[in-house]
Amino acid sequence: MKRFNLTVRVVGLAVVTLVGAGACTPDPQTDPGGRGGGLARAGSVEQATGAGGSSGSDRRVQAVDRAVPPRTITRPVPEPGPTRTMPQRPQTKPSQATSCAQGEYQREVETYLAKLNFGPVLEDGRQSDLDCATIKKFQQRYDIRPAEGRAGPLTYDVSKRLATTDVSRCNAGTGSATTFCIDLTRQTTWAMRSGKVVWGPTVTRTGMPGYRTPAGTFKINYRNIKEWSNPYEVWLPYWQHFTQGMGYHQTTTYLHNKSIGSHGCINLLPSDARRAWELGKIGSRVIVFGRRPGT
């Protein structure tokens, strides 16, 4: 009886041993490569889940399919340093800003206009709003085109002729009667009474080459507010004849076109022709001196 019990115990112990060994053998289907890929390695679950305890060696653990959050690298924000201010360049303003263009005769025109007392100007050779306004006014007065305030060659020419006209060269005397004076050299004209200038000087255009206006002393002997010119078939406003079919009248073309000139007459701007008409009368003296350049 004792021998039977001993045999049973031995057999039972062998069975237990065989069953326990089979529980820890890796499943060949689960880990085909033989590297334990289908089972969690020791400590892998703790690293992945943060769990502190062991799940036991007899528990098949599925691989954890959880994304590991990326490591966030926090860089310290630098403390703001002292603010650097770039040096600012001083703003330079033009001494005489203007919207008008400066002409090549700026200083000369300024000088001549100052001599003529024709409005305020700054005699510094630089364009300014003040200069521009005065030059433009001058251009409008004498029909200089375009009247844009620029001291160009025509403005220079007209202002020079007017500023350098010597009214004392006309021997008008001191009588109360009106005397008209014509400077052929400068192409200017004016009127005097009692030794004083009562009109002008202003610009004119006299006879062109082949039709030179003669120098001398004459008298107005015929006047007509609007005379018809038979040879040239044109109306001559404010006509005042003094010699050889020549006389004062309003210009019928652009006065500053010197290439065509007149046929001996004294061409005037409209406003000047009207003023000469108002001052003149039959018997008024006309003194012509000098000679137009090129004639």
TrEMBL record:
Active-site residues, Swiss-Prot/TrEMBL: 249 (proton donor/acceptor), 265 (nucleophile)
Indicate, by first and last residue, each region the UniProt record lists as having compositional bias (Polar residues).
85-101
Gene3D superfamilies the record matches: L,D-transpeptidase catalytic domain-like
Q: Where is this region: Disordered?
A: 22-104
Q: Which Pfam families match?
A: YkuD (PF03734)
**Which residues constitute the signal peptide according to the record?**
1-21
Q: Which domain of life is it from?
A: Bacteria
Gene Ontology MF: a single term:
transferase activity
Please state the pathway this protein functions in, per its UniProt record.
Cell wall biogenesis; peptidoglycan biosynthesis
Say if the entry is tagged with keyword Cell wall biogenesis/degradation. yes
Listed under GO biological process in this entry are: cell wall organization; peptidoglycan-protein cross-linking; regulation of cell shape
Keywords for the protein's UniProt record, in alphabetical order: Cell shape, Cell wall biogenesis/degradation, Peptidoglycan synthesis, Signal, Transferase
Name any GO cellular component annotation: extracellular region
Sequence ranges assigned to domain L,D-TPase catalytic in this UniProt record? 178-289
Q: Which SUPFAM superfamilies match?
A: L,D-transpeptidase catalytic domain-like
InterPro entries (UniProt xref): LD-transpeptidase, LD_TPept_cat_dom, Transpep_catalytic_dom
Tell me the PANTHER family matching this sequence. EXPORTED PROTEIN (PTHR30582:SF33), L,D-TRANSPEPTIDASE (PTHR30582)
Q: Write the protein's name.
A: L,D-transpeptidase-like protein
Where does this protein come from, organism-wise? Micromonospora olivasterospora
